[in-house]
Amino acid sequence: MLKQAGRMEKTLRIAIAGGGIASLCLAHSLTTQHPDWSIQIYEASPQIRDEGAAIGLATNAQEALKLISPSLREALDEAGGVECVPAVRIMVGTGKDSGVCVGDVPQPTPQITVHRTAFWNALRKRIPDGVLQLGKRLASISTDLDAEHPVTLTFSDSTTTSVDALIGCDGINSTVRQHILGPDYAPFYTSGYNHRVVVPLAEAEEAFGKEYCSLRTQYGWIGDGGFLLTDHCDEGRSMQVIAGWSDKGPWPYEAPFVEWDKERLKRDLEDWGDIGKAMLKIFLSRPTLHAAAGRTHPHTPTYLSPSAHIALAGDAAQSFPPFLGAGAGQAIEDALLLSTVLGLVTSPSDIPSALRVYDSIRRPRRAAIAAASMKAARLMTGRDPEVGVDPERIRGLLPVWKKEIFGVDLEGVQREARGLFEKGRGKSDVGGES
Ligand SMILES: Cc1cc2nc3c(=O)[nH]c(=O)nc-3n(C[C@H](O)[C@H](O)[C@H](O)COP(=O)(O)OP(=O)(O)OC[C@H]3O[C@@H](n4cnc5c(N)ncnc54)[C@H](O)[C@@H]3O)c2cc1C
Prior knowledge:
Blueprint: E1 3-4, E2 7-8, E3 13-17, H1 21-33, E4 38-43, E5 54-57, H2 59-68, H3 70-78, E6 82-84, E7 88-92, E8 101-105, E9 111-115, H4 116-124, E10 132-134, E11 138-143, E12 151-155, E13 160-163, E14 165-168, H5 175-181, E15 188-200, H6 201-208, H7 210-214, E16 218-223, E17 226-233, E18 238-245, E19 257-260, H8 262-268, H9 273-284, E20 289-296, E21 310-312, H10 327-342, H11 351-380, H12 391-397, H13 403-406, H14 410-424
Parallel strand pairs: 3-4, 3-14, 4-10, 7-16, 14-21
Antiparallel strand pairs: 1-2, 5-9, 6-9, 7-8, 11-12, 12-13, 15-18, 15-20, 16-17, 17-18, 19-20
Bound molecules: flavin-adenine dinucleotide.
Keywords: FAD, Flavoprotein, Oxidoreductase
Protein name: FAD-binding domain-containing protein
Pfam families: FAD_binding_3 (PF01494)
């Protein structure tokens, strides 16, 4: 490949499978940094998604957005993101201390909760027309290192395309993950499930009371075998309500998202005092109730294909229980590091080095967050035998809550990545797969 004045002779072709948060953030960055490259997102879903739930983005995620581009951080405000002050307030939900306020989780800056679809729409506006292709489900992948563009994607409509690199941002059921790791690393069901809904604030006030709803915090209720959560979104006009359960045995359904018997929820919320009654009011007033199974694949030995032309990001790379609210933040951190290393690429032969640096830095960080999230899952459903639902013992843990998530210097990580990339540009095993 001949280069002229640092520019490539031919346009590099990058495909991104899946059109979620990780994907849109990465596409925004790549199309801005490399307007001469061909960047395509292939999203299986035929229309704009309308998912009725919000996500909380902590300091690290807000910082990562800003480092990718200030415009992405602005998208959070544009989508009606609500600053939570205090960020997270922990309450006891069951037992003799039901209703006791344990305390607030200290965070370096307020967490921001945002309606997922609103955020997605704000991100989508920040990528050029023609980049996102809806209704394109990736079906299979092949690699030919002698070909001009070594990675070939085949879609479920039988069309194909060939690219220089493929980034799998296709979520927990990732086809790209399956291609790289095979069936041994497929997601599995945890023994829990959750119900989620976003309701107008007036309805929430009626169920929970005005005083409860006036505090713009994320309330987390720890109980025996369950965790309840409420927070604001849509500039405070709506409230998200979640009831999650652990220890419920194997998931007996084929689909991960099913319609649910309201009587079962009544039984699950029986021991939860006033908060249980308020939650029930919200969930029972919906025409139908649904449950989403807890699923995870917390262990991933590599994010790369053997030739390092294909990489995993977001939930496709590693997915863990949502009890620290860290998944979307990690997806954004992935997009930041991919933008950093791919931003340095000036030739197709740089791609494996760039993706190996990404893998070597991101995998340990995600593994630590996955381990912390699994620990949090036990703690927040009252299943840590040392803590249970004892307010004093829970209070003792607040100062270190989520510390794995905040304790990161993202600019330092970018510097490290740039250094590793420059050291190994063109070499075959920089930051090698382990
Ligand atoms: C109950 C719950 C609460 C949560 N709360 C938080 C929170 O507060 N904060 C937080 O940071 N995270 C939270 N998370 C986690 C967060 O939702 C995920 O980690 C995040 O959305 C992952 O984004 P992604 O872009 O990797 O994947 P996704 O958003 O799942 O996007 C993947 C996309 O790929 C598409 N796709 C799939 N297969 C194919 C294919 N073969 N071809 C093409 N496209 C395909 C899908 O249609 C989808 O659009 C929560 C998760 C749950 C379950």
